[in-house]
Amino acid sequence: MSRDTLITAIAVVVLIVLAVSLRSLLSFILDTSVPMAVVSSWSMEPVLHVGDLVVTTGGGSIELGEVILYRSSTHGRLIVHRVVKISGDRYTTKGDANPVADFRPVPRKNVLGKVVLVIPYVGSIRLIAEKIVGMFAFLFHS
Q1: In terms of Cα–Cα distance, which of 85, 72, 87 is closest to 41?
Q2: pTM, whole model, 2 decimals?
Q3: Residues 79 and 49 occupy one common structural domain
Q4: Using an 8 Å Cβ cutoff, are 54 and 113 in contact?
């Protein structure tokens, strides 16, 4: 193994360790199991764009009009939408670009946090990497 290859391998390992540590630290500081998420659809245009990285914080109350991150009861995926109605411990949400509110209200237990910071397009790298990995998995699994 050449010296350059070894240095590259060590750098990759260090970056992975730093990324995992940062996520764990942010999780603790921001009081949420999912401190960062990447927007993967156009439902929140023009406020959020595909590839935007959102930073969320847990705890505290959720107010009408705030943008939250929650786990869908239907398919288990993470969703970033705006709260348009509050009924007890359930939230009706809607993507800003969607013509109607989401069909099922979100129970409080599914809310992972509210969006407090948006870093434009930084998450695009992750979306591209997921597509590439998915393509290779499909090609080599068949």
Answers
A1: 72
A2: 0.78
A3: yes
A4: no
